[in-house]
Amino acid sequence: MSPANQQGPLRIPEDLRECFGGTATRRKWLDSLPSLLGTLVDRWQLTLDIPGSGSVWSGNTALVVPVRADDGAPYAVKIAFPYPETLLEPLALALWDGQGAVRLIDVDHGSCAMLLERLDGNTSLVEATVPKAIETWGSVMRELMIAPDTRAPWGQLPRIDATLEQWSDTLPETWEQLGQPFPRWLLETALEVCQTRGAVGRRSSNDVLVHTDLHFLNILATFDGGYRAIDPQPQLGEAEFAVAPMLWNRLDQLDARDPARALKQRNESLCAAAGLDAEVARQYSILREVENALDYLTGGAAADAERSLWVASTLAGATLPGLPPVGELHSVGGRGT
Fold it and tell me: Looking at residue 53, what is its pLDDT?
């Protein structure tokens, strides 16, 4: 069954082409998508449900194509580039089994492809007001916080405390290599979080499955009025590790009169909605944004690094001088974007 003769031709989204056009390996993967999609459609006995425009959904690492089963039921085929985190996605979705996250119907491990329930790809929490988004995020987060059981996939998931142990070595090395791009006190604050939360994590009996990229755009509406998470980058550990992406997105909607206070209030509101410890979430968010800043600087993304440093230092209690005002920071996840 050729994708080209189903309702509309398959058009690879331009943003996906931009992300994957830089190397021969990635271009080869892009070029393989139409044929691979046809193979999956045949295997799972599906019909493509692509609009006449040929437009489909995509993120930074995957193509998502609407399809229908023989009985007309709507699903989606997701084909991801085989990064380590995308290989973990079906493990996490199988564990959640539709509880708070998109339901996994089937998986083809060889092609890093999944058959998923279809959500409303045009309606995420970006379209909601921030207060409504926080309320919904908290509800979804409560569903996602499942504890380990005897199922095999649990043993294949990375642990947050192991990530912190790794960062305790790599963060100071990268900071030195980049010429100490921000004050030492902020680096030391992040390293202290590695030590304290890592020690807690190694002896904690409260581990849960954590969606570590749970921001506004990664929570989509269902067709019956609910919301579910997509695109997990799963780890096992303290749930508060999940809060940070909701703090570094939609910064342009913080109260401009006192953005520092508004950022801290957002953290507290998120934690109240999900039943989490706001102080632990604040600590993790400082660490994650310091790590993000160093990663951005390594890649030459100075504007993104400024955003991360604003969030990290503000949460730490002393916004770094010389950064742009919050309204001028490079915004991500803004409403309507």
Answer: 63
Q: How many CB atoms lie within 10 A of CB 327?
A: 12
And the tokens for 300?
């030459």
Helix (H/G/I), strand (E/B), else coil: 331 = coil
Structure tokens at 272: 């109240």
> Is 164 among the domain residues?
yes
Looking at the structure, tell me whether residues 113 and 167 fall in a common domain.
no
Residue 19 belongs to what H/E stretch?
helix 14-20
Q: Give yes or no: residues 37 and 137 share one domain.
A: no
**Residues 129, 174 share a domain:** yes
Structural domain ending residue among the three candidates 118, 150, 168: 118
Count CB neighbours of 129 within 10 A: 11
Closest C-alpha among 197, 235, 233, 194 to residue 215? 233
What is the Cα–Cα distance from 295 to 69, expressed in whole angstroms?
A: 42
Predicted confidence at residue 248, as pLDDT, reads 96
Q: Does residue 99 sit in the same domain as residue 190?
A: no
pLDDT of residue 333: 62
Q: Give the Cα separation of 259 and 315 in Å (integer).
A: 11
Residue 47 phi, psi (nearest 5): -125, 130
Report the number of distinct structural domains present in the chain. 2
Same domain, 270 and 146: yes
Dist CA 276 CA 58 (whole Å): 31
Tell me the sheet residues that pair with 46: 69
Same domain as 192, residue 154: yes
**Domain that includes residue 94, residue range:** 3-118
CA atoms of 59 and 80, how far apart (whole Å): 9
Q: Which of 218, 57, 63 is nearest to 133 (CA)?
A: 218
As given in the structure block, the two tokens for residue 64 are 């998502």
For the chain (337 residues), the mean pLDDT of every run of 10, in chain order, is 44 80 84 92 94 72 92 95 89 97 96 96 94 98 96 93 97 98 98 93 83 97 96 96 97 95 98 98 98 98 97 98 94 52
On whether both 275 and 154 belong to a single domain, the answer is: yes
**Domain end (from 98, 118, 138):** 118
CA dist., res. 68 & res. 48, Å (int): 6
